[in-house]
Structure prediction request, 163 residues.
Amino acid sequence: MKLNKSNIKDFLTGCLDNGIYVERLITNNFSDYLEKPELSDDDFQTLVSFMTTNGVLVKDEKGNYETVIGFQPGPGTVKYIITTSAGKNGQINPLGEIEVNAGEDFTYDVIADKKFVIDELVVDGEGIKDVSGLATYHGVIYNVRENHAIEVTFKENTNAPEV
Prediction:
């Protein structure tokens, strides 16, 4: 697991929730950091320095901190929010803010109304290729490890046969 300022608290909480006690973290009251709403850069550096010195973290060739105690937050430990939205003339299911456990897959379906097709499907700011013009689409975000946003818009189907 790569650690950064935004997920180090999840890592520590996950360790404790799963019965993985890094003795030196407990004795040095690092659990106090878990109670803070947000870690400062100094807090993060203090934790990283301590965990590196005590063999819990190593720095990889790209400068990322990797855990070495073999813990990955599992289902139920860490949750992320998938936010979905749809424009007029179609729908996305599920719709809204959906809580997903870390590591789970998230599936969604896009369905255009009659006489309409998908105009654009955007996941985390990136347009999904080869979706424009489809009446339906089934998507999956595998192994969720962060929050995501899915937006879809629809347009009139100009290729539909006239009745």
